[in-house]
Amino acid sequence: YLSSSVRITGLVLMSVALFLITLSTVFVAWNSSHLVIRASQPEFVYASHFGALVMTFSIFAISFDESYGWTKSMLDAACMATPWLVSLGYIIIYCAIFSKLWRIDQVLHFHHRKVKVRHVLGPFAFFVLAAVVLLSLWT
C-alpha cells in the first residue's frame, strides 16, 4: 500500500525527470551544429535520453495499488510492466554508452577509416534483443 503523499511525491519526481529529459533533448537538438555537441555523438545522447525516458515511466507503473480501483489483471500488468521498463531503460542507456565508447575506440585504432554509427549498432541491437528475450521468458 502506498500513501497518497508517497504516490504524489513519486509522480512529481517523475514529472521533474521527464521535464529534464525533454529539456536536455531539446538542448542537444537546438545546439546540434555546435562542435562540442557533435563531438558528443548526439545519436547516442538521444538513445540514452530515450532509455532514461523508458526507465522513468516505471515510476508510473509502480504507483498503483488496489486502493485506486484497479482490477487484479490491471495490477498484474502494471506489476510486470515495471521490470520491463526498468530493464529496457537501463539496457538502452548502458548500450548507448557502450556503443559510444566502442566507436571512440574504433576511431582511435583505425585512423584512416571513418567509423559511422551503423558500424557500432550491432552490440546495441544484440543486447537489447537479449534483454527482450530474457524478459519475455520471465513473463
TrEMBL record:
Keywords noted in UniProt: G-protein coupled receptor, Glycoprotein, Membrane, Receptor, Transducer, Transmembrane, Transmembrane helix
GO molecular function: G protein-coupled GABA receptor activity
Annotated Gene Ontology cellular component terms: G protein-coupled receptor heterodimeric complex
Transmembrane segments: 12-32, 44-62, 82-99, 120-138
Membrane topology annotation: Multi-pass membrane protein
Principal subcellular localisation of the protein: membrane
Subcellular location per the Swiss-Prot or TrEMBL entry: Membrane
Pfam families referenced in this protein's UniProt entry, alphabetically: 7tm_3 (PF00003)
Domain G-protein coupled receptors family 3 profile as annotated: residue spans: 4-139
InterPro entries, alphabetized: GPCR3_GABA-B, GPCR_3_C
Protein name according to UniProt: G-protein coupled receptors family 3 profile domain-containing protein
